[in-house]
Design goal:
- This protein is 7% helix and 51% strand.
- By secondary structure, it is mainly β.
- The longest helix is centred in the N-terminal third of the chain and has 16 residues.
- 35% of the residues are buried.
- Keywords: Signal.
- This is Type IX secretion system membrane protein PorP/SprF.
- InterPro entries: PorP/SprF_Bacteroidetes.
Length: 345
């Protein structure tokens, strides 16, 4: 029992030292964080600028909660008009993650660029890159080691013989992606699909020796897709998103099904109306996540909750974590010219 207790306390440190999928920051509302999925998905929205923020609080019912927060901005340099053959999108995101008793922290500041080219009337191809520095650290004072237990009782004053080489690491991370998307602002059906490769440079992320093979973060392959289709003359929509992720030796599958209902929209413009989006997101063999999103003119507010269904339910009692998102869009340019967006946002 004591050994199990120690392993649970050391879990955040182990995640930082080993090449696990859990090392990466990711969110349940996957469609609100395009940079993390595929850099080439940046810019697939109606408007010139989109700013977003997200906050996630997970596993509070089991242990010290894992908190993740971030913000991102996407900006279209050109290509706002339907007849434009190409457009360039720039973006920047900052993410911060804190986990467990050791206060394992990660802060990443990354810039993105994507280029989208029109192939036909309703077909576009895009490529993109995401790159930037990442800083990680932990507080060893929050960990409890086996040699600090005296007669079965933990003694915080007892020194440990466990070697801690350093408690911080800075590294550079690089990701790239390709995607296709079809449909335009007036299309009754729109779709996208893409593939991305993350951690192309396999950075050293552990807190041991910099050249240790075990500390290298393995590359991650992500396949993404989505479909939005109108179901009536009011342009109410059914929207699907999906991600399939491989990062040796682990994998993850997320599927979302959403229904978008317009409550008020006289002009037909997505930034001049009120709509409500409801549905659920399924993380394969891990969680079922109800989600709701309110779109009010240029603002959107979303909320979801992870109901844990994995083997951890014995401890979690189905409780996972909350996630909140906030988005703001600026249309830019002449209103009758901003038509390269889509009906996913």
């Amino acid at each position: 029992m004591r050994t199990l207790f120690i392993r649970l306390l050391m879990l955040p440190l182990l995640l930082a030292s080993a090449p696990l999928l859990g090392q990466d920051i990711h969110f349940t509302q996957l469609y609100e964080s395009p940079f993390l999925r595929n850099p080439s998905l940046a810019g697939i929205y109606n408007g010139q600028l989109r700013a977003s923020a997200v906050f996630r609080n997970q596993w509070q019912s089991v242990t010290v909660p894992y908190k993740t927060m971030g913000a991102a901005v996407e900006y279209k340099l050109n290509g706002l008009c339907e007849d434009d053959l190409e457009n360039i999108n720039l973006g920047i995101q900052v993410m911060r993650d804190e986990a467990g008793d050791s206060k394992l922290q990660r802060t990443q500041l990354q810039a993105a660029i994507s280029y989208r080219r029109k192939l036909s009337n309703q077909l576009y191809i895009a490529g993109g890159f995401l790159a930037g520095p990442v800083s990680s650290s932990f507080d060893p004072r929050g960990l409890k080691w086996d040699d600090q237990f005296v007669n079965g009782v933990f003694d915080p004053t007892q020194p440990t013989r466990q070697p801690i080489i350093n408690s911080g690491r800075n590294y550079f991370d690089l990701s790239a992606g390709l995607s296709l998307n079809g449909g335009n602002q007036y299309a009754s059906m729109q779709w996208y699909t893409g593939v991305a490769l993350h951690h192309i440079n396999k950075p050293s992320v552990g807190f041991g020796a910099a050249n240790s093979i075990d500390s290298k973060l393995p590359m991650k392959l992500t396949l993404s897709g989505g479909l939005a289709t109108a179901i009536n003359d009011m342009d109410d929509r059914i929207i699907f998103h999906a991600d399939v992720i491989w990062q040796q030796p682990h994998n993850e599958v997320l599927i979302s099904a959403l229904y978008k209902k317009w409550l008020y929209n006289e002009t037909g413009e997505s930034d001049q109306g009120v709509s409500l989006t409801m549905g659920a997101i399924y993380r394969w063999a891990d969680a079922i996540c109800p989600v709701i999103k309110l779109n009010f003119n240029q603002w959107s507010v979303g909320a979801s909750y992870d109901a844990n269904i994995s083997k951890l339910t014995v401890a979690s009692q189905l409780r996972g974590g909350f996630e909140f998102t906030l988005l703001y869009r600026i249309m830019g340019g002449a209103r009758d010219c901003v038509r390269t967006g889509c009906k996913f946002d």
